[in-house]
Amino acid sequence: MLKICRLEESVLLHMRNSRLYRRELSAKSGNVKDSVTGRYSWQRPCGQHTDISIYNHSMGGKVPLVLSNPQMVTWYTCGPTVYDSTHLGHASTYVKVDIIQRILRDYFKYNLVTAMNITDVDDKIIKRSRESGRNWEEMTRNFDSEFVRDMQLLNVKPPNLRAHVSANIPAIQRFIEQLLSDDKAYVTEDKSVYFDVSACENYGKLQKISTDEPKEQPKHKRNAADFALWKAKKAADEPSWQSSWGGDGRPGWHIECSAIAGMFFGNKLDFHAGGLDLRFPHHENEEAQCCAHYKTKQWVNYWLHTGQLFVSGEQQKMSKSLGNTISLSEFLKHYTADEFRMACLLSNYRNPMQYSDQMMQTARQTLRKFINFNADLNAYMQFQKPLKYLDEGALEAQLKHMVTEFDNSLRDDFDTARAVSVLIDQMSSISRCINDQQADAEQQPAHCLNLLLAVGNFVTASMHNLGIKHLGTADAQKEAQATTALNGVDLDVLVADILQIRGKLREEAVKGGVKNLELLRMCDQLRNILVRHGIEVRDHKQGSSWVYGDKSKSISHSG
């Protein structure tokens, strides 16, 4: 309890000292009010304190995560508009969201219920359908299936609930009808429907905006900031549905997410995620119409906005409209899904990513540190490296420090970059111990093997919880066997047999204290052949081990 109170004190202190916002805190309700605009920006939920802090854009700082029902934590993510293939900018958003969901679900053990919409009715879809001459339904189905496959390739877990806009038009219409009934929306002459921003008490809570009307007010809108809930049909080839207010039409962009999320989760939502570019107008408008519909001051408790992906040297985000995209299929020819995920981990979810080969090489090298640590530890545990005397007390302290600091990092706004750094520091220290020290014949070294295994287990489990698949785990080993076996050939057994023969050649080459250079050259040739096929061989005093190279699956073995 003391720790939670101190966390809240630090949050309140930041709020009082903020240069960007002047807030007034109601001690009873936890409502945060802007003293300039008079609008409520954020309400601290009632429920269980988690000792986790999350960045809040409206507050300009971190706020405590409080869960109203820890046994069921709700999460909605804005899904794709399926009019084209997935590019790396899309991928960065969904991988970052997946990382945070895994932290909450797999590390902190919260029962996370997730949902996503699929936008298959939209202006961009209509335009692409016309340009390509393809039926809009057939086109969106194909791109949706492609998106699902791409997420599988990136090891992004699918949502528990998934809804297409075109299949939920009645729910969207009922949402609009309620807003019309409450005088929060109005019908125009062409039978379009607009949300009345002037009827929303706290419009502009996510991003400071001006709702002042321009001199020339659009004829069909009451206020310049009003946005479309329903768009009247304008052309024969547009997808459309009949409505109770008259005329055919289709939903606006913002109402789709609000109605679908509300259908799943009702009048309160713990988390809502999407790219930073969606903060306004999409998320602002979602929040406004849901607060109006459910008659509440706060619909979403925690908005999570991911930083955008930029091509290095460019000032604009990666997007189809700008023509600066890199397709996921092209990217995966050069780098792995684990390497891209590591790049996301190193950037943290809120930070923009400057995509470049240098960024990906850094991610690759970081991932190799984990792979190499697992390979070294595996070889040490199988007595292929000489056992060393290790300080048991120091190892216990290191393990405790690693576990504590890793946990603190993730509780601090999901700081994955710091969490990865904590693991690397401890791995480097232990690797130096088992690789650099000389064996001491007078000491009994094996009593520390349990602590080394504990470190290895924690590192592997931590990376698995962040979504990294291939670090030498048994599951990855089985997958590699399934994907690399040809005509019944077991790759593990084949490489083990080759290394066994190579080991005998090495023994023969140094027998009697005289080196046989020809045999040693043959050993080198065998090593080089394996390297060309993506197998990296490591020689130890009592044998050899191997791992997949950078361009293949990253799994450690021994033989």
TrEMBL record:
The yes or no answer to whether the keyword Ligase is present is yes
Please name the InterPro entries in this protein's record: Cys-tRNA-ligase, Cys-tRNA/MSH_ligase, Rossmann-like_a/b/a_fold, tRNA-synt_1_cat_dom, tRNAsynth_Ia_anticodon-bd
Task: Name the Gene3D superfamilies on file.
Answer: Cysteine-tRNA ligase, C-terminal anti-codon recognition domain (1.20.120.1910), HUPs (3.40.50.620)
Q: Which GO terms describe its biological process?
A: cysteinyl-tRNA aminoacylation
Which residues are in the tRNA synthetases class I catalytic domain?
A: 69-364
EC numbers listed for it are 6.1.1.16
Secretion signal: which residues?
Answer: none
Q: What class of enzyme is it?
A: ligase
Which Gene Ontology terms cover its molecular function?
Answer: ATP binding; cysteine-tRNA ligase activity; metal ion binding
Which PANTHER family does the entry mention? CYSTEINE--TRNA LIGASE, MITOCHONDRIAL-RELATED, CYSTEINYL-TRNA SYNTHETASE
The task this protein performs is described as: Mitochondrial cysteine-specific aminoacyl-tRNA synthetase that catalyzes the ATP-dependent ligation of cysteine to tRNA(Cys). In addition to its role as an aminoacyl-tRNA synthetase, has also cysteine persulfide synthase activity. Produces reactive persulfide species such as cysteine persulfide (CysSSH) from substrate cysteine and mediate direct incorporation of CysSSH into proteins during translations, resulting in protein persulfides and polysulfides. CysSSHs behave as potent antioxidants and cellular protectants.
Q: Which family does it belong to?
A: Belongs to the class-I aminoacyl-tRNA synthetase family.
Q: NCBIfam families per the record?
A: cysS
What protein name does the entry list? cysteine--tRNA ligase
Source species, please?
Drosophila albomicans
Q: Which gene encodes it?
A: LOC117572154
